[in-house]
Amino acid sequence: MRSVYCGVLTAANIGEEVTLCGWVDRRRDHGGVIFVDLRDRDGIVQVVFDPDAEDNFALADKVRPEYVLQVTGKVRARSESTVNANMATGEVEVYGTELSILNTADTPPFQLDSFTSVGEDVRLRYRYLDLRRKEMQHNLRFRSKVTNAIRNYLDEHGFLDIETPILTRATPEGARDYLVPSRTHESKFFALPQSPQLFKQLLMVSGFDRYYQIAKCFRDEDLRADRQPEFTQIDIETSFMDEEQIMSVTEGMIRKLFNDVLSVDLGDFPRMPYSEAMEKYGSDKPDMRIPLEMVEIKDLMKDVEFKVFSAPANDPKSRVTAMRVPKGGEIPRKKIDAYTKFVSIYGAKGLAYIKVNDKDDLENGLQSPIVKFLPAEVCKAILERVGAENGDLIFFGADTTKVVTEALGALRCKLGEDLDLYTCEWAPLWVVDFPMFEETDEGGLTALHHPFTAPSCSPEDLQANPATALSRAYDMVLNGTELGGGSVRIHDQDMQQAVFKILGISPEEQREKFGFLLDALKFGAPPHGGLAFGLDRLIMLMTGADSIRDVIAFPKTQSAACLMTDAPGAVDAKQLQELHIRLRAKPQAAKDEAAKEEDK
Measured on CA atoms in the order 305, 308, 309, 311, is the torsion positive or negative? Predict the structure, then answer.
């Protein structure tokens, strides 16, 4: 039906007869000459109809935005005064000689040009129209380009693309499962996979030593800008490779991807222990574009009379830190009050600060409500430790380790954004040496990643000192976002049992939840490990989109609903009966029904 796409026509095509198909982006009538901007997935070209071609001109007069047209005509140069440098096809236009209206269209609920601002709820309700917009066309074409580049890289490195089941059984992976009732097995349920974790380990046992899959995953959890109930994961698993080799292969993939698609050289990725990331930056995914660090000053505050500092300074489960903001003395008090409110979200009871007007005048050169509570020698030591200069601002955190780390870590990122402190465009990083376990609210231990992550010690050392044990896990971070995470897995039965014992998972529970994997590990499981990247998050970063929803064709809302299809929806009684399910009435509905019965 067409010979060429609209958006690819250039001066090189002048004189050619072409046939185009697409949608009417705009129609303009200028003194008896009709201009139609015809749009397809590659872009827009201007088509001209004049009264000399009477039938076509009369038809062109009827077209409206979003009509679907087929146009045949000759490519010609625009006059010098009408060249549009903002369009890829701005040097040329098509003189229309034939026109067919393939379909009409109702008036769209919103304009599709880039200058239109419309609520996201409207965009999602009419997603098929929203996807016609230039930005969405670019994002999805970019996504296709990225996935193609990833497949090519992994194929070239000997990885096999193998699919794993969508209907499986529930396993403990940190979030709620989406459950699917079985019609043929009464009172039993499938679970949609939160990840292909167990199956990819089974593939290693099967001898497929390099596996990958661009897999759909499902998690029933609270949503945010970079999270969806169904998301896409670049899933990778290998046998006979240690963590250094796995990180080398996957780092090479991301570096090549950025170089090929964005012409960006990310360089070598530095390594940072988890403990350093949390201590200095308050996050296990620090944004290294921001040149702010948290500095421990607990030792300086132990003997001060100011209890706000001295109490946590003498508590082994608390910390006292300072964070210097270069030239932060220009931040007004009103903004500091706003930052105080911001850190309260993370449990901080306040946000102490010192403005450094003159670092050499400890009596009059420091501006803060707290200076009067601190001895001069303590103030001097603080300034020296953080490297303060005149005009700087120092923020303080003093509370439990968790509150200080989270509050100042979040404040660090907010300051970086508000004050535009970014030192570079891209800052990749590997975070390594994660703890094997973390403490629960009840005082027990739970796996920081999952119970199949291998520790970096022997089973005996693990059981002797579980709280301080490190894992063979690693996360790839870019600009403060976790691109992907993985680990070397446990392939030894004794080690797996040691982990289960620490986690309090009984033999019966082991059998019930992942007996099939434990059985497989008995039959010569090789050393193996892997990594999974969040594809949606990766595309969001690379395109500069504000939300994952802008890089997914048909996303859900933050309440996990689809406005376009009105999903989730009700099902009829027959379907429920076939699934052996009966819905319970809501309490108020049940009362209303009972009241009706009484009235009868």
Answer: positive
Return d(Cα 543, Cα 532) in angstroms, integer: 20
- Name the residue among 44, 207, 189 with its Cα closest to residue 114: 44
| Angle between helical axes of 333-344 and 401-418 (0-180°, round to 10) | 140
Integer Cα distance of 411 and 395 in angstroms: 9
- DSSP-assigned states of every residue in 525-567: PPPEEEEEEEHHHHHHHHHT-SSGGGGSSS---TTS-BTTTTB
Nearest to 91 by CA among 32, 124, 152, 45: 45
13-40 pLDDT, tens digit per residue, is 999 999 999 999 999 998 789 999 999 9
CA atoms of 73 and 516, how far apart (whole Å): 65
Q: What digits encode the pLDDT tens for the residues 496-530?
A: 999 999 999 899 988 888 888 889 988 999 999 99
Q: Name the DSSP letter for residue 295.
A: E
- What is d(CA 455, CA 473) in angstroms, rounded to the nearest whole number? 8
The whole-angstrom separation of Cα 168 and Cα 170 is: 7
Which uninterrupted H or E stretch holds 507?
Answer: helix 507-521
Q: How many CA atoms lie within 13 A of 12 on its CB side?
A: 3
Which residues are 295's β-sheet partners? 322
* Strand 294-296 with 43-49, pairing: unpaired
Tens-place pLDDT, residues 255-299: 999 999 999 999 999 999 999 999 999 999 999 999 999 999 999
Report pLDDT for 221: 84
**Quick check: 109 pLDDT over 70?**
yes
Please, which residues bridge with residue 96 across strands? 73
Gyration radius of the chain over CA positions: 31
Question: Taking a C-beta distance cutoff of 8 angstroms, is the pair 39, 6 a contact?
Answer: yes
Q: Reduce the secondary structure of 239-298 to three states and give it as a string.
A: ECCCHHHHHHHHHHHHHHHHHHHHCCCCCCCCEEEHHHHHHHHCCCCCCCCCCCCEEECH
For 230-253, letters b (16+ CB in 10 Å) and e give bbbbbbbbbbebebeebbebbbeb
Among 280, 273, 276, smallest CA distance to 324 is for 280
**pLDDT class for 450, splitting at 50, 70, 90?**
confident
**Residue in 530, 523, 548, 451 with CA at minimum distance from that of residue 205:** 523
CA–CA dist 107, 105 (Å, integer): 6
CA distance 475 to 469: 18
What's the average model confidence in pLDDT over 51-80?
94
Q: Under DSSP, is residue 580 helix (H, G, I), strand (E, B) or coil?
A: coil
Residue type, 346: Y
> CA 262 from chain center: how many Å?
19
pLDDT tens readout for residues 5-14: 999 999 999 9
Distances (CA, A) of 56 to 51, 96, 100, 268: 8, 8, 8, 60
Quick check: pTM over 0.85? yes
Helix 535-543 to helix 243-262 angle (10° resolution) is 40
Compute the average pLDDT of residues 467-488. Answer: 96
CA distance 313 to 246: 41
